[in-house]
Amino acid sequence: QVQLVESGGGLVKPGGSLRLSCAASGFSFSDYYMNWIRQAPGKGLEWVSYTSSITTYTNYADSVKGRFTVSTDNAKNSLYLQMNSLRAEDTAVYYCARARYSSTSCSDYWGQGTLVTVSS
Amino acid sequence: DIQMTQSPSTLSASVGDRVTITCRASQTISSWLAWYQQKPGKAPKLLIYKASSLESGVPSRFSGSGSGTEFTLTISSLQPDDFATYYCQQYSSSSTFGQGTEVEIK
Fold it and tell me: How many A/B residue pairs have CB atoms within 8 Å?
């Protein structure tokens, strides 16, 4: 069965960096686009980024462009999100999600999320 | 960027009610629209993709319609398990979510 497990969240100071990981299993990782989607406390969903390990194509929301970098490691079936220059408004639960086959960001499987808190 | 506007923000309904949620895109997105259900503390669950296609395992009381800029999610007969927050998402150009609609018990 498809499983996505995020890790790497925690407390970081404004201006700091953090790297999130998502371990995928139960499907052919390289065949799918993978997404990061976040949700600030008590707020709605915000798409952050997607990537394809086959095409290496990436796309980012304007709110994170130039600060966040998404990447994959097919050998480890893993998705990553390197987050730099973090701001208070980046505080959120970050979800890793698999896009439906032939879609970029319509997501059929989600992880449980990892909480990132940016605060001094 | 494409903006997605959902209405209403909150909806009060009773078990057995027919419920309709609307999502409007700021520009045409063809049928590249999905609907999700989210319960507190849980990850969202995909209900509908490509505007009207029912995701596997989702009850048939859920349906989606629309194309272009106007879309609706309908629950034909609201069940106790359906009280949750619903989001639309466009995936025509990058991706954007609506602000959500909370379906609460009347």
Answer: 55
